[in-house]
Recover the amino acids of this structure.
């Protein structure tokens, strides 16, 4: 028999013994025996609408019967050390809300408890209850357990006379009064405090059967105090000798239920609401209690869930059915089971802890004082000064799994990946075709939506090379700008395939060129375009050289990057290409940059013939239109008013002679003194770049510089740029002009210089 019990309940496997388990069960019984007294006082004294009361003896007998039977079944089937009894929250709801308030009879109320229990069982069997149990966060489950524990603690404070129920304005009772009649100086309060101290001492010192001993000692003390004082301040019952030690229980109320009476008396809706309230109360009460008890008994897994939960929840659901049939209210897992769990724990070793190090792996560590109490299956692994470390087969097995988990996970991951690829390869062509179809559909839907929403037009794709756009707009700038967008036309034909665009900074040159490239791209992609009308010929490639960037890691400066990109354009652009060039040559000196820009423009015009938009601040490039037949000048219209510059953002024929860079600097917020100084320097530089010694002229504040001093040759000659020359100087100048430098040898050149030097002396 002993061996059978050991195998069935895994007692030795858990490191416990039958004696320990019996002691723990006794502790659980005494810890929750109060419910046999408390439940009859709640249910047995209240009369229903028919004037019928269940009776205290009858409810007490039914409470004990149902609690005993369900606790045995829970242990035998679910194999959890959890006891069951009438839930305190449930019986109060049944007695107050359902009988006293809703006007139901006791038979009808208990019938609803039975129905609620049947629903709970069905939910547990279906797995729904387990799924909800697993889905609730662990923190919320822990909070439920804490709340239930605090509820039980409050009941203990009330029953011990430390706190009393005081009627409020609604004629209900709430435990807010301290002691009895506002005082804790009563004999029951003293006994309560003494009992609490004894229980605390036993638990802290981890005394085997400590709670049982504390309950017995407190009971004896209560008998002694009552015998000497005769106090009348005890709450529910005084500690006096019972009239009888036993008798035949009155089970007349067992099975006296009415399953359908409530539906006809208060209606279907009200009845369903009562059942739903019972359901929720039982549902979450059990959830919080079982989670807390599982952690107390170290029965939960790594995720905080109880093993074989479904079976336990089914049995717990039958507790509600049994409680209703017994007229004792719904039975559920009782939080006071923690007393027995604590006393009958796996080892009884309160200071046990599990650790890990690289040398010994995982281990169980016990203080030296408890090392001798270690179970037989504990194998000593290491001895320390104040502790002993052990290993057990289960922990060794876990260690092997944990240490090899990473490599096994990677192997498994690779296997799953290979399986996925093999599965996908079987349908690869179909998946690719579907993907292409979805991608095409996505693009077409996006094109259609944008065209409809933004009032775009259908472009005309023509065979002739060229781009003609009427009132073109930038698709992005138009939407993000808080000002009305100014549209512009584009005309690029075989007879006019290069546009030189000048004008002020911030005038819109870059926007104009970018929108042209975007419209051409959208048209060739099959989309409508942001314009009033558009004719777009074949465009094989779009080349751009816009912005400034460097590649310092690759050893390339900003100008080098610019030239590299420009070189790529010149080598690969064709007559059907669209070329966008923005400020070529700006990364070097003025004359170098101007020379490069001029040469690039000539090459694109003469050799390549690509459709080109060329924006520049080198205003000298406008002269290309005089020399090249297929070049047209455009500039950004500007209006000067009241000393301020207004950028009209409209392109008009012709070239600009100013860039208005200083005005843009002012708009950017440069200090006024910096802007004023820049204007002075600009005026001086525009009047003459060199002083009378041939050195760069220092810009003077206020007004233009004076004319060059005598002796200084004019930079470009002629006019009033320089002084009149002396006859000897004029003769030397004429000799230099007459010399054929391409035909002179180095020696002839030196001889000529020596001759001229002698003449000047």
């Amino acid at each position: 028999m002993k061996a059978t019990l050991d195998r069935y309940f895994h007692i030795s496997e858990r490191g416990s013994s039958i004696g320990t388990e019996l002691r723990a069960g006794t502790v659980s019984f005494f810890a929750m025996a109060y419910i046999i007294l408390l439940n009859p006082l709640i249910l047995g004294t209240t009369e229903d609408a028919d004037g019928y009361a269940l009776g205290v003896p009858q409810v007490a007998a039914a409470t004990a019967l149902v609690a005993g039977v369900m606790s045995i079944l829970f242990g035998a089937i679910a194999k959890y050390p959890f006891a069951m009894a009438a839930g305190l929250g449930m019986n109060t709801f049944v007695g107050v809300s359902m009988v006293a308030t809703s006007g139901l009879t006791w038979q009808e109320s208990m019938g609803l408890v039975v129905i609620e229990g049947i629903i709970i069982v069905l939910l547990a069997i279906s797995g729904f209850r387990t799924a909800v149990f697993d889905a609730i966060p662990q923190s919320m489950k822990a909070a439920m357990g804490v709340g239930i524990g605090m509820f039980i603690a409050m009941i203990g404070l009330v029953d011990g006379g430390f706190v009393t129920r005081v009627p409020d304005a609604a004629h209900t009772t709430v435990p807010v009064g301290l002691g009895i009649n506002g005082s804790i100086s009563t004999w029951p309060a003293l006994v309560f405090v003494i009992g609490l101290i004894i229980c605390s001492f036993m638990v802290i010192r981890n005394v085997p059967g400590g709670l049982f001993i504390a309950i017995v000692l407190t009971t004896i003390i209560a008998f002694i105090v009552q015998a000497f004082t005769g106090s009348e301040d005890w709450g529910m019952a005084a500690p006096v000798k019972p009239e009888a030690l036993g008798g035949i229980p009155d089970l007349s109320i067992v099975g006296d239920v009415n399953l359908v009476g409530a539906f006809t008396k208060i209606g279907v809706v009200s009845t369903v609401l009562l059942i739903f309230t019972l359901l929720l109360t039982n549902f979450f009460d059990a959830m919080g209690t079982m989670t807390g008890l599982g952690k107390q008994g170290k029965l939960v897994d790594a995720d905080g869930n109880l093993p074989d939960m479904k079976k336990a929840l089914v049995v717990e659901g039958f507790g509600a059915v049994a409680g209703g049939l017994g007229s004792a209210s719904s039975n559920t897992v009782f939080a006071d089971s923690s007393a027995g769990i604590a006393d009958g724990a796996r080892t009884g070793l309160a200071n046990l802890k599990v650790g890990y190090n690289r040398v010994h792996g995982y281990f169980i560590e016990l203080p030296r004082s408890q090392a001798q109490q270690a179970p037989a299956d504990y194998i000593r692994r290491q001895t320390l000064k104040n502790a002993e470390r052990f290993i057990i087969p289960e922990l060794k097995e876990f260690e092997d799994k944990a240490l090899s988990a990473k490599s096994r996970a990677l192997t498994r991951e690779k296997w799953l990946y290979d399986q996925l690829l093999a599965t996908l390869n079987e349908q690869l062509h179909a998946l690719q075709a579907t993907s292409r179809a979805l991608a095409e559909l996505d693009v077409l839907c996006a094109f259609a939506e944008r065209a409809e929403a933004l009032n775009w037009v259908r472009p005309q794709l023509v065979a002739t090379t060229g781009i003609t756009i009427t009132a073109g707009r930038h698709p992005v700038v138009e939407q993000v700008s808080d000002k009305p967008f100014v549209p512009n036309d584009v005309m690029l034909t075989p007879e006019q395939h290069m546009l030189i665009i000048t004008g002020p900074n911030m005038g819109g040159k870059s926007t104009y060129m970018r929108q042209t490239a975007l419209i051409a791209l959208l048209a060739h992609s099959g989309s409508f375009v942001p314009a009033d009308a558009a004719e777009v010929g074949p465009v094989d490639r779009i080349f751009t050289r816009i912005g400034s960037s460097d590649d310092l890691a690759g050893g390339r400066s900003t100008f080098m990057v610019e030239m590299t990109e420009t070189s790529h354009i010149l080598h690969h652009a064709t007559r059907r290409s669209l070329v966008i060039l923005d400020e070529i040559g700006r990364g070097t000196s003025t004359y170098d940059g101007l020379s490069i820009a001029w040469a690039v423009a000539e090459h694109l015009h003469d050799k390549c013939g690509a459709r080109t938009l060329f924006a520049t601040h080198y205003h000298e490039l406008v002269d290309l239109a005089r020399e090249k037949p297929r070049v047209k000048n455009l500039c950004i219209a500007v209006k000067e008013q009241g000393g301020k510059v207004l950028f009209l953002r409209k392109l008009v024929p012709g070239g600009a002679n100013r860039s208005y860079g200083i005005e843009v600097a002012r708009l950017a917020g440069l200090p006024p003194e910096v802007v004023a100084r820049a204007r002075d320097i600009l005026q001086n530089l525009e009047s003459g770049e060199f002083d009378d010694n041939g050195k760069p002229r220092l810009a003077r504040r206020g007004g233009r510089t004076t004319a060059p001093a005598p002796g200084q040759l004019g930079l470009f000659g002629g006019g009033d740029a320089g002084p009149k020359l002396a006859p000897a100087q004029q003769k030397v100048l004429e000799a230099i002009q007459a010399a054929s430098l391409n035909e002179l040898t180095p020696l002839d050149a030196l001889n000529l210089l020596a001759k001229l030097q002698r003449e000047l002396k």
